[in-house]
């Protein structure tokens, strides 16, 4: 879709791998993989409904099977959904977004296409505004120690599978990835002494972590709470 916004649907090539419907993808792959006229005939019969809907009226042969399969894939992915795509594009045009996208396609891509980048401990740590007690107080000292535990916990979550960074993110935001424009409101990290387990407010993006004196206890209680928290789904 992003390529279509940038170049126009007629200038975008579609592969059978781009089709998300497994049955349709399988039908087109059968056409591509046919080695004999008999195999091709069987594949064409299986895809008869798709071929009819696409308005394809050219006889499919071993010589043109690849071109035909790609034409059908292009129709299924792009032409079949052309009307809603045009409405979406018109909406972007009215706000000036389409012009910006076409003039700066590389810079705009991250706003439309999720980056294939794994979360890191630094990504999660840098999300937070940290709320401390008064500097110099006993509570502040205990919170600084717990903050170091939190940083170690994120490093462990990046490497180990007991609790992942995505699990941590879901626990306090409901999302398993960081939105392109970030979170609003900005996530806050607070400290609590009234509970040994972390507490989250996913509406306000607030994570309250328990103050502990020992890292092993901190990690155990964080793991227990996060592993037993699923139930509200993901945003």
Q: How far apart lie the N and C ends?
A: 22 Å
- Broad shape: elongated
Identify the strand order in the major beta sheet: 1-2-4-3
> How many structural domains?
2
Helix content: 40-55%
Q: Strand-and-helix sequence, N→C?
A: HHHHHHHHHEHHEEEH
pLDDT average, as an integer?
91
What structural class is derived from the secondary structure elements?
alpha/beta
Largest sheet: 4 strands, mixed
| Low-pLDDT segments, ≥5 res | none
Counted by DSSP, the helix tally is 12
Tell me the number of strands. Answer: 4
Radius of gyration over alpha carbons? 26 Å
Q: In percent, how much strand structure appears in the residues? A: 5-15%
Structure description:
It contains 12 helices and 4 strands, in the order αααααααααβααβββα. It has helices at 2-7, 22-33, 37-46, 48-53, 65-79, 82-94, 97-103, 105-112, 121-125, 138-159, 165-173, 215-227, and strands at 129-130, 188-192, 199-201, 206-210. Strand 3 and strand 4 (206-210) form a beta hairpin. Helix 2 runs antiparallel to helix 3 (37-46) and helix 7 packs across helix 8 (105-112). This is G2/M phase-specific E3 ubiquitin-protein ligase-like. One of its GO terms (molecular function) is ubiquitin-protein transferase activity. The active site is at 203 (glycyl thioester intermediate). Residues 55-235 form the HECT domain.
């Amino acid at each position: 879709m992003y390529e279509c916004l940038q170049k126009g649907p007629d200038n975008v090539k579609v592969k059978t791998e781009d089709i998300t419907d497994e049955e349709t993808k399988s039908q087109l792959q059968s056409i591509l993989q046919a080695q004999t006229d008999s195999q091709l005939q069987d594949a064409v019969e299986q895809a008869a409904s798709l071929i009819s809907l696409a308005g394809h009226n050219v006889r499919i042969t071993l010589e043109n099977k690849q071109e035909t399969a790609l034409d059908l894939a292009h129709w299924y992915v792009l032409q079949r959904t052309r009307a809603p795509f045009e409405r979406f594009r018109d909406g972007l045009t009215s706000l000036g977004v389409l012009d910006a996208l076409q003039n700066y396609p590389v810079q705009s891509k991250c706003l439309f296409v999720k980056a294939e980048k794994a979360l890191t401990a630094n990504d999660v740590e840098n999300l937070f505004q940290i709320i401390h007690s008064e500097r110099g107080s006993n509570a502040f000292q205990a919170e600084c120690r717990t903050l170091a535990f939190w940083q170690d916990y994120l490093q462990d979550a990046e490497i180990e599978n007991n609790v992942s960074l995505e699990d941590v993110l879901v626990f306090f935001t409901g999302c398993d990835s960081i939105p392109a424009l970030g979170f609003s409101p900005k996530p806050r990290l607070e400290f609590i002494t009234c509970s040994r387990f972390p507490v989250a407010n996913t509406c306000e993006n607030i994570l309250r972590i328990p103050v502990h004196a020992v890292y092993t206890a901190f990690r155990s209680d964080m793991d227990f709470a996060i592993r037993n928290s699923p139930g509200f789904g993901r945003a």
